[in-house]
Amino acid sequence: MNRSAYIALSLLVVIVAYFGIRSVMRGSISSQTEAAAIDTTLKTPDAIVEEVSTSPHEVVLEAKGRTAPDKSVTVKAGTTGTVVSTPAKEGSYVRKGALLCGLDVEARSARVSEAQARRDSANIDYEAARTLASKGLTPANQEAAAKAALDATEAALNAAKVELSKTQIRAPFDGVFETQLAEAGDYLGPGGACGVLVDMTPVIVVAEVAEDYAVKLKPGMDATAKLASGESYPARIRYVSRTASDQTRTFIIEAEIESGDATLAAGVSASLIVPVGAIPATLISPSLLTLSDGGQLGVRYVEADNTVRFAPIQVVDEGVGGAWVTGLPDTVRIISMGQDYLSEGVTVSPVTAGGAQR
Fold this sequence. Notes:
Low-confidence stretches: 33-41
Strand content: 35-45%
Largest sheet: 6 strands, mixed
Oligomer: single chain
Number of strands: 22
Helix content: 25-40%
Structural class: alpha+beta
Radius of gyration: 45 Å
């Protein structure tokens, strides 16, 4: 064998040996990688959990509303006439029966005098007929006719007095003559407005509440009225609507404010705070709330067998410490991190925030 052939054969042996060793090494590395991948696939994912428990929680309803007078009416005329007097001053306190607007009596006073005279004449005729009938000098039916005539004149007199009284528009209750709507010289017809009278004893708070709370409220329940100025007064619920608004599906409630000697204004923003009782609830961070695939608000937690579950919940109160919710088991391990990446039914390894398994 010459030298060139020997060198070529040696090179061929080296190349074959190189590729053989490389193939063996590649197979070994591939096997290790596949094994690692299989090991990673089979590893149970960790879930950071936090154990929470249910406890009694006092639910307090806070409803936004406004103050309002106890009563407010627009005092109106019952007949026609020109306003000739307005003795009540706007903003003044008036007693029941006080004159608010006086109308020109025109011929009404004369009609009363005329009706009075006819009644007196009919009364004389009746007395004469009655005396004669008692002596048997006239038929009994003549006495009855005289009595009927007297009764007719009495009715006419009363009607004339009523018509005359309508010229005096008076306060139907004690209150503040809030707004004067008619001045001297104005002509009012039946239903024409003289002014607005309001009763501010007591001042009330009118608010709207959701249907979930409306069923828990009853007249007589204690409350607190907090005004926009920061002042707070005791209050008591006096009315709860049983018909919801078609637009908002809320119910109107009213509460009387016990303000003592304080003078309160109507139309001021106010909050009505009502304790509605204690219920079993769980305090959690609002950040733990998530949505199910169906759009339900809830929390993901870990069962005793380390399976992930979803619990629909209802938020009943919120405060500085978090959200109070119902719908969770009495004691539960909720997933405090990564809950949006764990599906229901997955088995996990529960780990506390400090790193210990639970």
